[in-house]
Amino acid sequence: MSPRLPQVSGRTLVAFLEHQGYTVLRQRGSHVRLVFQRGDETHFITVPNHKVIAKGTLGDILTAVSRATGVPKSDLIELLRRA
Length: 83
Known about the structure:
Blueprint: H1 10-19, E1 23-28, E2 31-38, E3 41-48, H2 55-69, H3 73-82
Antiparallel strand pairs: 1-2, 2-3
C-alpha cells in the first residue's frame, strides 16, 4: 500500500516533474503538457494547473510517471512530500 498522497498545487507538481526529468511543452488554459524522453521512448503527461490537484488525479499522474521513469510510486510520493 502506498503512502498517503500530499495535497499539492499544479505549479508545485510541474516543478517536481521538471526535477524528475520532464520538460514543459506548452500550456493551454489551465493545463500544462510535459514530456519525458529516455532513448527512443517518449512519455507525455498533462497536469491541471489548479490550486489543489484532486487526489485521484494526482494518484493517476504519479502512477504514469512511475511507469515512464522506473521510479517506484511510493518513492515519488515521498519526494513530492518534501518538495
